[in-house]
Design goal:
Blueprint: H1 2-36, E1 46-50, E2 58-63, E3 73-79, H2 93-103, E4 106-110, H3 120-136, H4 138-141, E5 143-153, H5 155-168, E6 176-180, E7 198-204, H6 208-222, E8 228-232, H7 239-242, H8 253-258, H9 261-296
Parallel strand pairs: 3-4, 3-5, 5-6, 6-7, 7-8
Antiparallel strand pairs: 1-2, 2-4
Helix pairs in contact: 3-5
Length: about 300
């Protein structure tokens, strides 16, 4: 009886301790996310709430370049990182506006639900539902449904790759997938379908996560795919999104270490090369459509 009583007390203590730890962990994650959020009046982009049947809406920020309003242009879905439990779409605010102009594309930054609140599959579904929405409303937003791209950073790249796999099973296909220093542990590098999008990897040479991603790249190559790979030898993890004004709000030590002029210049160079890559694949789409029209004509 004494032993059972002691065990019961220990079990209660353990449960109380575990609940305390879990609540503290969730509160810490929430604090990190809140540090990245902006007031509506300070946001450069436009907030949109995508309604869904039977579940919560998807929050996105949208950025439209200065252009002829009737011109149809590509749409790029921008997926933030944050170690699966932190980060926010607002952290990509300045960067999204800049690349919208530079790439001449509508940028949609998806504020997916992080994994401390919902399973990863839930966040992936939010992303694919956002893609479906803009695919269905392509005319309204003056985007080309045949030129949908997705870019993800670190954990966001994991979400992007999973979303690409789900979209491959549907009629809504990505034209291109850009994975920046992606977290690939747990991603399947087998059974890539015939509609898998052309993929560009941006790797940071001073980043162990980028180096591990090379196994995933090898798996794609073994599957007969030909991914494009650009490695920035002196770059650190998160160098692209950290070197923006919002990066100063990131409380993590790793973010502070990567925010400097050298990493900023590498980031701007990477964005320029990503834009060239998007324009190249976009040109390939135009040539394919033109060839098809000539055959049908």
């Amino acid at each position: 009886m004494i032993l059972l009583s002691v065990l019961s007390v220990l079990l209660v203590i353990f449960n109380v301790g575990f609940v305390y730890f879990l609540n503290s962990y969730r509160n810490n994650c929430e604090e990190q996310r809140n540090a990245m959020k902006k007031e509506d009046a300070d946001l450069i982009g436009q907030r949109i709430s995508i309604q869904r049947n039977g579940t919560n809406p998807v929050a996105v920020n949208i950025y439209v370049p200065d252009r002829d309003e009737q011109e149809r242009i590509p749409v790029v879905f921008n997926i933030h990182g944050g170690g699966f439990v932190a980060g926010d779409a607002d952290a990509l605010d300045t960067q999204s506006k800049r690349v919208a102009q530079q790439w001449n594309a509508v940028i949609v930054s998806v504020n997916y639900t992080t994994s401390d609140l919902k399973p990863i599959s839930y966040g992936v579904r939010e992303i694919t539902d956002a893609v479906d929405y803009f695919y269905d409303h392509a005319k309204e937003y003056h985007v080309k449904p045949e030129e949908i791209y997705m870019i993800g950073y670190s954990a966001g790249a994991y979400y992007a790759a999973e979303a690409a796999r789900d979209l491959e099973k549907k009629d809504c296909h990505l034209k291109g997938l850009i994975l920046c220093y992606p977290w690939t542990t747990g991603l399947s590098n087998e059974n890539f379908g015939s509609d898998w999008p052309q993929t560009l990897f941006i790797l940071a040479g001073q980043d162990p996560i980028s180096q591990k991603a090379k196994n995933y790249i090898a798996g794609m190559e073994d599957a007969g795919l030909e991914p494009d790979v650009q490695e920035y030898t002196d770059a650190q993890h998160s160098f692209i999104e950290s070197n923006n004004p919002e990066g100063m709000n990131d409380p993590s030590e790793s973010a502070k270490n990567v925010i400097n002029e050298k990493q900023k210049q590498l980031a701007r160079g990477a964005e320029f090369e990503i834009g060239k890559w998007i324009n190249h694949t976009s040109d390939m789409v135009s040539l394919t459509i033109a060839s098809r029209d000539l055959r049908e004509g």
